[in-house]
Amino acid sequence: MQSLLGTGVALITPFNEDLSVDVDSLVNLVNYVTKGGVEYLVVLGTTGESATLTKEEKELVKQTVIKANAGKLPLVLGVGGNDTNAVLAELNPENLKGFDAVLSVSPYYNKPTQEGIYQHFKAIAQKSELPILLYNVPGRTGSNMAPKTVIRLANEFSNIIGIKEAAGDLVQAMELIRQSTRKDFLVISGDDAIALPLVLAGGAGVISVIGQGLPRPFSEMIRLGLKHEVTKAFDLQYQMMPVIDQIFEQGNPAGIKALLNKAGVIKNIVRLPLVIADEDLTSRIEKEYIKLK
Question: Which residues of 200-222 are buried (b: 16+ CB within 10 A; e: fewer)?
Fold first, then answer.
């Protein structure tokens, strides 16, 4: 899908002081990143604290983003889990209405074999009416999707259109590009720090966290990378490197919420078991943001 080239952002879920979903701030966020030039939005991923949202809250987030977006950008919905049958139940037309693709994380906690991962995504591919992006994030799931498993799935199911690769391993991501026999298969970085090198190696872009805090410079960096304007792209990369590290220092989305709060987009609130970034980190993030805004 050409519409998923460039920078997608994994939207946070803003909260009010009473921990309810802050609808107004979510609308602000959608407008902020859209004006900043990102190419698409990812809803209800890990960064959106989806693990602590009720079914009703997830629906509220979805409908708020759909309405605020008003058809301007492609929308990708996070639909994943470690119970294959439960994921399949979510892949119904009503739940997917308004979205252009699905992002589905590799099963976590269970630590399935590569065959188990293959069978999980085979079932999803056979059920989903929308194109599917696989999501490999072994730091959270406890297991790695091997390149051979990804390529096997890509070769057998045309509606598996790409992967968000967040193993933090540039060589593994390059292996996916090298081994893929499909020119339309998207290898998308799930790590902000190595997004530009991956794009220059043939990747399709990034699903970013920092991209929602600094949408203009980050999305411009990725566009420059896709055009192989290397010097200009790396100038931006080096300017943003400190804050990219900082926003993950005490976990995600604590860092990006601190930055977005400084930007005046949201309140700085997360749900337990997450806690907000401490004063020292928040101060450092704010200093970097002021330099870059």
Answer: ebebbbbbbbbbbbbbbbbbbbb
